[in-house]
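chain below, 327 aa
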Amino acid sequence: MTTSRRCAIAAIAASLLGVPLAVKAQNVPPGFPLVPMTLVVPFTPGGPVDILGRMLANEYQSRTGQPATVDNRTGGAGNIGIDAVRKSKPDGATLLLIPAGNLTINPTLLKNLSFVVDRDFAPITLLATAPNVIVASRKLSASTIAEAIARAKAGRVTYASPGVGSQLHLTMELLNGLADVSFIHVPYRGSSQALNDLIGGHVDLLATNLTATLGAIKAGSVTALAMTTASRSSLVPDVPTLAESGFSSIDVASWYGLLAPRNIPNATRDALFAVTRDVINSPDINAKLQAQGLNVQIEEPATFAERIRRETAFWADVMKKNNIAPQ
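prediction:
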C-alpha cells in the first residue's frame, strides 16, 4: 500500500471516528465542541440567517479542524428545523440560527408548537440586527409617512407584509393604532412577490427588511417613507425614522440569534459564546455583514434570553390589542 493511500485511509477513518485531524486547540476555549458541527437554518439558502450560518460554520471549521456545515431544514414556517435542534443531543454540536419572529411571535401566534423557548433552548447570543423600512408604490404618490396616513384617512390604502403574524405585519398594526388609521393588510408568503406587486401598483405600502428592497429604493421603483428603527440607516441616510415622524414608541428591527438545546453544559455554552463573539466582531466578518445590510450586535446568553422574554411579552400585547387570534 502506498504512503499516500495509507494517509487517505487514515484521514477517512479519523473523520468517521470524530477524531480531529488538525485541531487548533489554541483557537478555541475549553468546552468548545471538537467534533463535527451542524448549524440548522430552518429556511432556504440565501437569506440573512443562511449568510450568518455559513460564515459561522466556516470559522468554526477553521478554528477546530472539524467539519462544520449548514443544514437548511425547511418547512412548517421554520418549526421543522427548530424541532430538529430541540431533539438533538445537548453537546453544542447542533445549533440553531433563527430570526426574531420565530422566537418572540410564533409562540403566541401559532397553536400547538412543539417547543417552548425557555424550556427547550439555551440562548447563546444575539448575532446581528437588520433595519426595517416602510416603502410606498409610486402610484400612491406619498413621499412621507404623514402623507400615507393622510391618504388612508381619506380613503383605502393597503399594505403588504411577509405574512400574518410576521414582525412586519405587527409593526404596521402597531402604527395603525398609534396613528388612529386603518391601513388594510394584504399578507404574502414572503417579501419577493409583495415587492413585485408594490412596484406594479397592486398594493400601496410594504413593510419589509431594508436589504430586501434596497435595490428598488435606489432604482426609484418605490419610495422609502420611514425606517421602523430608532435611528436612520447609513444605507439610506435620507430616510427618516418613524420616531422622527412622531411615533417615538416604535423601534423595531429584525434580528438573528444563535441557540443550542436546553441542557448543554455551561462550559460549552460559554465557549460557544466566546468564539462566536470573536468571529462576529472580527473586522473581516463585520465588514461582510455590513455589506449585507446587517449590523453586528452581540449579547451575552443571559441578556439575549431576557430580550426574547421581553419581546415575546411585547408582541403578545400587540396581538391582543389588535385582535389577532392564535392560528
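The two ends are 63 Å apart (CA to CA). The longest strand covers residues 121-137.
thats it, cya
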